[in-house]
Amino acid sequence: MSTGYFGDLKPIAYEGPESDNPFAFRHYNPDEVVLGKRLEDHLRFAVCYWHSFMWSGLDPFGGQTFDRPWYGDTMEKARLKADVAFEMFQLLGSPYYTFHDADVRPEGATLAESISRLNEIADYLEQKMEQTGIKLLWGTANLFSHKRFMAGAATNPDPDVFAYSAAIVKSCMDVTQRLKGENYVLWGGREGYETLLNTDVGHELDQAGRFLSLVVDYKHKIGFKGAILIEPKPQEPTKHQYDFDVATVYGFLQRYGLEKEVKVNIEQGHAILAGHTFEHEIAMARSFDIFGSIDMNRNDYQSGWDTDQFPNNVPELALAYYEILRAGGFTTGGTNFDAKIRRQSLEPSDLIAAHVGGMDACARGLKAAARMIEDKALSTPLDERYAGWKKPEAQAMLSGQRTLEEISERALREGIDPQPKSGRQEVLENVVNRYV
Predict the structure, then answer these.
(1) What predicted TM-score, i.e. pTM, was given to this entire model?
(2) Average pLDDT, the chain
(3) 174 annotated to bind ligand
(4) Which InterPro entries does UniProt cross-reference here (predicted)?
């Protein structure tokens, strides 16, 4: 039953590249087969609850600009929000959605009441999912908004906050399991510090390692088949965060023996804040074998914070999906739109248009990436550049069959005098541009 919030908008259909309908897909045809798989199955789109239905339009210098009928701290409002959310998921044809506990239920007066409300709204979400066929990509806990988390959750100097956070995460994992979520995400928005003057870094890292170990143990205890994901975040809101980027997360996982248990959910905006490209972070995750999922958004390159805008840069998206395809594509993960409309975009239809444009841009990027894979447009030059390492002596050096002395002796004996070879960066950039 329609809530009427989106007026007379009809489900978004694919109309092809020539369409000028702002509420139609021009490039995203869910049933189009690319590299032997439907586009819908490649991209695995998900709409997030928080930016789409929780954000009120505020920014650091101004308050609320949106007036949504579901704003309020009652379960009645929470059910209305779910009604509108699932109506939007259906309009977009999004196969998945994602949420934090605080997105879907109002805060209770006590921890027990907050958990009870989460379970109550989960019953309602379960009904909506059965009615629509829309699935849960992942659930997570909001351990950063409330003032109790101002010094962190797992890394808080107060052990009672650690215990409170553990109870919240357990309840969210239980609900994610019940709703057949395909992943569970840990986003450490406050897991960091502002100054070393009041921080024991080693102690807090051990706390974070213990907390994550508890999560992994509980996953196995309840038989959760999905992936546990950490979302790297370099700064904002805290000055320094322990999960700065993919490489930092991998080092953390190795230290606590969790590198085989936990993967990463990578956000484009966070990659930029860390001083990397999105494709770099995906490539690192692929190399470490911890690639899981992505949050799809973009930053304003003139701003120094995470602006969470909808994606529209097809060349960037093509390079990101190229690395995802090289990683074998998504398994339990997907493309989650962790993006919000601008605070001046006041019409309900703006929410739809933003997602339509983002889905189209992602489809264009993935199809360009697939063509580069099929044509070996980048892999052939790459293989040629590293061809020397396939020779027997190079393999012997790489595999540990040669000592430093032996390598040095051969270099002197054979009079090795390597000459520089062009990296051909501009040529390869031109190749990419031909596909996008």
Answers:
(1) 0.96
(2) 96
(3) no
(4) Xyl_isomerase-like_sf, Xylose_isom_bac, Xylose_isomerase
